[in-house]
Amino acid sequence: MTADLSPARLQVMWNRLLAVVEEQGQTLIRAAFSPIVRECGDISAGIFDAGGRMLAQAVTGTPGHINTMAEAVLHLRGRFALEDMKPGDIYMTNDPWLASGHLNDFLLMMPAFKDGQVVGFTSCTSHLVDLGGLGMGPEGSDIYDEGLLIPPCKLVEAGVPNALLMDIVRVNSREPVANEGDIYALIACCEAGVNRLVAMMEEFGIDDLDALGNYIIDTSRKGALEAIAEVPEGTYKNVLKMDGYEKELELHATLSVSKAGMHVDFTGTSGPSKKGINVPLNYATAYTVFALRCIVGPDIPNNAGSLAPFTVDGPKDCILNAQHPLPVAMRHTLGQVTPDLVLGCLHQALPDQVPAEGASCMFDLPMRHAPEVAANGGREFAIEPVHNGGTGARPHADGLSATAYPSGVFGSQVEITESVAPVVMWRRELLPDSGGAGKYRGGLGQRIEMTSSNNAPFIVFLSVERLKFPALGRMGGLPGAPGRIRFREGESDIPGKGELRVEGGDYLIFDTPGGGGFGDPAERDADALALDLKRGLVTDTGAKVYGGAS
């Protein structure tokens, strides 16, 4: 019997694929060992057709994993011949320029077989907490300092994991058990996707994904182009000043809008750094396109069709198009600011739709034991707690406090951090007055205070932004508060980049940045301001900038 391929039936199958990829993502999260995966959701999961085109991706996950995965599967699909693939095979790589921008992200791809033929692929990515080298920080001078690089290879053959490769990963990590567990969680994620995909095909009576894939991609591409057509055509430019490492940086973007699509060019952006804050173009593209898609056709599911009209480029001598073998371990530091950069362009075309700038870059704080702790038989550990600042105020609502945008990674929980590392989190609370004033207030940052719990020294790898240049407001809104790092007994602030040694008795304080405000502060609703004062989100001193609203 011929399968029903009516538009209604195809839409039902499309919805089923979206359910399948969510199950994939939840499988990965629930099976993972590392807190950054199982608690923070630093993952992606997706389904692809036999040609490597992304048909569906899990909503759970980060743009830096999801949108890079769309291109990575095409690379792996082209590297390995279909005729050589067998049921149970899984391929992987962590090459930053093929996968998701730095070595700590493992990307897997598994072929799905039906009646002996490859009918599609499932793929996923997650972050492994430690792969050796100098550690998860910006101090490397090239990619070889940053840990173990694995070229595209077969991780699992006919259902049997590559024992030698697993051994190599284990012996090159300070967290071998967590890494091994996370790899098996990735494998389980791929297997769940394959099983559910084939079961869906059998249920609906289809032997391949050709018709469904064409329907998804054509429909999504058409919808994206219709959304782009509502944006005024033209060329829009924006520049962001960033803290940088050795020196301050400028990020430049030119957004060109036409009926055929949207193109972003990074020409004019500062050159690469000698340290690991450089950004491969695949990662910069992922976050740039994500930002545009948040405003332009946000209701259209992410797939090869909806992504196609959005393109990104940049000269090879700029920090947003880092070339091998530049160090890229902390590529998120600037990569996650590209949404603010490109939204500054889009604001000129759609001033009533684009939010103010936010903290953007996560306060990602990788930390591990000091070298002498291991030598003296002390407790060894490696962990990567993640904390967030405030998002920018929206055109019709306040920003979100202590919320990750654009990464979407959940903030690390105090109890989890203390259970897996010898640290005490003495305080984690919202920071009053840190959100930029405006008709709509920027989201608040937070204060985190911590010490060693066993009086042993540890290392924190710092690579954060907006300590010098805060998130700017829009349409008369004021900037958010800048971030700040210091010791309680210290006389000066600590720079946002570098390797920080924390002694046993040190009391470390982090203030994450606030988001910018939107609109004239004098126009803020008096009841909203009174509620902020009552809740302690704004102090009496902070309320003075609101003028007529107070």
The gist of it:
The protein has 550 residues and is α+β, with helices and mostly antiparallel strands.
Question: Would you give an account of this structure?
Answer:
- By secondary structure, this protein is α+β, with helices and mostly antiparallel strands.
- The protein is 30% helix and 21% strand.
- It contains 14 helices and 21 strands.
- A seven-stranded antiparallel β-sheet has the order 2-1-5-4-3-6-7, sandwiched between helices. Strands 8-9-10-11 form a four-stranded mixed β-sheet, covered by helices on one side.
- Strand 8 (234-242) and strand 9 form a beta hairpin.
- Helix 1 (7-31) crosses helix 6 and helix 3 (63-79) packs across helix 7.
- The longest helix has 29 residues, at 176-204.
- The radius of gyration is 23 Å and the shape is globular.
Key words describing this protein structure:
four-stranded mixed sheet; 21 strands; 550 residues; seven-stranded antiparallel sheet; 14 helices; alpha+beta; single chain
**Strand order of the main beta sheet, please?**
2-1-5-4-3-6-7
Low-confidence stretches: none
Q: For this entry, what is the oligomeric state of its chains? A: single chain
Total strand segments: 21
What is the count of helical runs?
Answer: 14
Strand content: 15-25%
Mean pLDDT across residues: 95
